[in-house]
Amino acid sequence: MSKAEASQLQQAVPLAELAKDAYRRSLRLDPAFWDAKYNLEVAMRLLPEFDRVDSPGEESQEEEPKGLWSGIPGFPRGLP
């Protein structure tokens, strides 16, 4: 999270994705592990995962416009 706070977004995104995977693995081993639950929630706020839904007649665009919206909308503060 220090890279995200320092506005190094290109380096923070892969690290946050790795962290989310690690927290999910931890929760599969111990579903009551509160620290992993909290940290996964924080990581999901930083980089939410959206399911993409395409209409049947709509062609999907592989190339997204760059610079319109950052992948990290904000930094949560405090407990969830």
Give a written overview of the molecule.
The chain is mostly helical. The chain has three helices and no strands. The mean pLDDT is 75. 48% of the residues lie in helices and 0% in strands.
Features:
single chain, mainly alpha, 80 residues, 3 helices, globular
Summary of the model, kept short:
With 80 residues, this protein is mainly alpha-helical. Helices cover 48% and strands 0% of the residues.
List the helices and strands and how they pair.
Layout: H1 2-5, H2 9-29, H3 34-46
Helix pairs in contact: 2-3
Radius of gyration: 15 Å
Coarse structural class:
mainly alpha
| Fraction in helix | 40-55%
Low-pLDDT runs of 5+ residues are none
Q: Strand fraction band?
A: under 5%
Largest sheet properties: none
Q: What is the overall shape?
A: globular
Termini separation (Å)? Answer: 17 Å
